[in-house]
Amino acid sequence: MIDFIYQNPTKIIFGNGSIEKLSSEILNYGTRVLLVYGGYSIKDSGLYDCLVNQLKRNEIEYQELPFVTIPALDRVYEGINIVKENQIDVIIGIGGGTCLDVAKAIALGAANSYDIWDILTGKILYDNLKCLPIGTAVTIPGSGSEMDGNSEIVDIDRGINGSIGSFEKTYPRFSILDPELTYNIPYSLTLYHGVTILVQAMEQYVCNTTDTPIQDGFTESILKTVLTALKCLKNDLHDKNARAQLMWASALTTSRILGRGKKALWLGGALGGIIEEKCGLTYSQSIAITWPKYLLTCYQDYVGILKSFALNVMNVDPENKSCDQIAYEGVKVFQETLLELGIANNVEELGLKKYCVNDLEKQIKQADLEDLISKQDIETIIRLTLGG
Fold first, then answer.
1. Is there a domain that residue 4 lies in?
2. Among 16, 95, 96, 215, which is least packed by CB within 10 angstroms?
3. Do residues 166 and 256 lie in contact, with contact meaning Cβ atoms separated by under 8 Å?
4. Does 5 map to a domain?
5. Nearest 10 degrees: Cα torsion 179, 12, 291, 266
6. The CATH number of the domain where 89 resides is what?
7. How far apart are CA 17 and CA 34, in angstroms?
């Protein structure tokens, strides 16, 4: 285990009905809020009316940034202008990772005189930057943005990504985790976001740092719990316990605790990013399809930890098998389990435009992974992902 420093300042308010505590948390920081939310589901579910009535009862003034369905830079600028024009005190992200990431970028951009894009692209260092208080109410668990300081924003016009990398001031001051807000999420969306939790946990787990039994045991417990919850939800979308387990697992997975003391590689997003935009996939789809192919291709690089995964998570029988065989079987069973749950085996199964590895040469080069994975292995992963 390597040395580390760990701090997570986010207050978690967890439980059914906890959304009713939103106003009391807001009032710790001010009386004027900006609500950042996505599409129509917040209104169709009745959540919007619930929130607005709650804010009015508590004399909290609110402005809105609706229809945030992509973490786009132009929406961040729009939000910053609203904040400055209305002297907003608190930014509230409501929804999944997209809304939460945009809320963080707005809070950082509105509190400083710098262009937010210069901050997101590393031209301005975090030293001495200010940030407005951020709160979240999660309706689609999976990204883990409710308990970390990260934010990913895209300049759509130029096709360039910017980010906030775990800045302590962009951690939410509080996050409302109310499982009841997730009961109406359809199974396909639940599944892909659930697998996002699995991948983001395994990104920190699959490495060659040794003597980390606490971190590894914690991760294995989360992996088993999420797989069990997804199996339950396949049969009963309204399984309250399964919904609660997914919500808590999502928050813990990117709280930075699982990877402390380990040299985590965080390869899931980078590999998924090779195919995501070109193939027209969501983030969750891209990593859910790509990650098992990575494990199947590169399992021999991490036999020790993947043997533990096979035995402790996938319940592989080790009798008369070598360590390599146990590790490989664990990965194989994992892939088969995802397919049984309903994850597409490859891009072709999703009915999207067919590409070959050569079509993605630019994306492979931009991913810049050859110090971690050989070019041949990257091409194998992408070929299997595409369906070739």
1. no
2. 16
3. yes
4. no
5. 170
6. 3.40.50.1970
7. 22
Nearest residue to 184 via CA among 278, 291, 44:
44
**Token pair for 276:** 């995501």
Q: Are residues 336 and 289 in the same domain?
A: yes
pTM, to two decimals:
0.93
Looking at the structure, tell me whether residues 174 and 27 fall in a common domain: yes
Tracing tokens 């990965």 back to the chain, one arrives at 331
Burial class (CB in 10 A: 0-12, 13-18, 19+), 204: buried
Q: What is the CATH number of the domain that holds 190?
A: 1.20.1090.10
Nearest alpha-carbon partner for 8 in 261, 204, 256, 260: 256
Give the other-Cβ count within 10 Å of 325's Cβ: 15
What average pLDDT does range 228-236 have in this prediction? 97
Domain that holds residue 217: 186-386
For residue range 25-80, what is the model confidence (pLDDT) as tens digits?
Answer: 999 999 999 999 998 889 888 999 999 999 999 999 999 999 999 999 999 999 99
E strand segments, 7-158:
11-14, 32-36, 61-65, 90-95, 134-138, 151-155
DSSP bridge partners of 151: 164
192 and 177 share a domain?
Answer: no
For the chain, the residue count is 388
Q: Exposed e or buried b for every residue in 241-255, given b needs 16+ CB within 10 A?
A: ebbbbbbbbbbbbbb
**How many domains is the chain built from?**
2
Is the distance from CB of 144 to CB of 200 less than 8 angstroms? yes
CA distance 210 to 124: 36
Give the DSSP letter of residue 38: -
The DSSP call for residue 123 is S
Sheet holding 61-65: strands in order across? 11-14, 174-177, 134-138, 90-95, 32-36, 61-65
